Amino acid sequence: MTYRVSAAAWKMEAAAGAAIDQTPSTDASLEVAPAGTRLVLSSFEASYSVQNGNFTGGLTFATWPRVYFRDASASPAVVFGAVATVTRALGHYVTCNQGGVMVTIPGPGVLFDNGLSISIQSPAVTSYSQSITLNIMYQV
Amino acid sequence: MGFSYLQSKVITIATASISNGARVALAGLPDHMHWFGCNFFWPGVNSSTAIADVSFYDGPTSSSRLIIFDCRGNSLQASAAWATGSFSLMLEEDAYIQLSDGLEVEFTFSAGTGVGSQGDAVMTVFYQ
């Protein structure tokens, strides 16, 4: 027996000096499935890049750009979070010719039994634009 | 069911067809895919561009992105002017994606950085 999966993708951008802070309240498409829906997340990929590769601003683990997978309740609880993979880093002359890593969740995937909403966050980068891309595959 | 061998197709997208936000149909692909992979070469991209990405959509009018690939992140340096990339959607053996209106690719880029102006983009897609 075969079954159908769905794919969805987003790109969140911020101009120089601006942070990325996106939730379903700022982008309705980040509510993938409403509260009460059962959904299984089977894979995801989150990538991060900065214009000119200028990773300034003193990013630490606490502030590193990341994605949170939450339920879709009125106060969305975090099911798990993942840091975004750098797709280009360390200056103009260092090769980092690689996209983000597609993470295939083992087995049947992660169950979200009360909907799925996503939040995407990154602190501002001085003088350069930044972006986070996110790909997911899921079953409803 | 079991996997059979993948099929492949080389698609050349002429420079004239690459404009910011325009979608190009990838003709000849099935609407019911168990596996999709893509390797591409897109000249004209460098790391200083504000935006450069390749997205795939289900048909010409759908607003829902299926896949996005950040190409700025794949440029080697500010003076380089091309992006390459590979990605794949590897599904469970019995899973599939259903396309209702064909697969379309969209190139998005910011003007003034030479993006999309230095030759044809070439992509090889693998599918089943």
Describe this structure in words.
The complex is a heterodimer of chains A (140) and B (128). Chain A is mostly beta strands and 140 residues long. Chain A is built from no helices and 12 strands. Chain A has strands spanning 3-4, 6-14, 20-22, 31-33, 39-50, 66-70, 78-83, 85-86, 103-104, 110-112, 116-122, 130-139. In chain A, strands 2, 5, 8, 9, 10 and 12 form a 6-stranded mixed β-sheet that branches. In chain A, strands 3, 4, 6, 7 and 11 form a 5-stranded antiparallel β-sheet that branches. With 128 residues, chain B is mostly beta strands. Chain B is 0% helix and 48% strand. Chain B has strands spanning 7-13, 23-25, 32-33, 35-43, 52-58, 65-70, 82-90, 95-98, 103-109, 121-127. Chain B has a 4-stranded antiparallel β-sheet, with no helix packed on it. In chain B, strands 2-9-5-6 form a 4-stranded antiparallel β-sheet, with no helix packed on it. In chain B, a hairpin with a 6-residue loop joins strand 5 and strand 6. Chains A and B meet through strand 1, strand 2, strand 5 and strand 12 of A and strand 6, strand 7 and strand 8 of B. Strand 1 (3-4) of chain A pairs parallel with strand 8 of chain B.
Quick take:
The complex is a heterodimer of chains A (140) and B (128). With 140 residues, chain A is an all-beta fold. Chain A contains no helices and 12 strands.
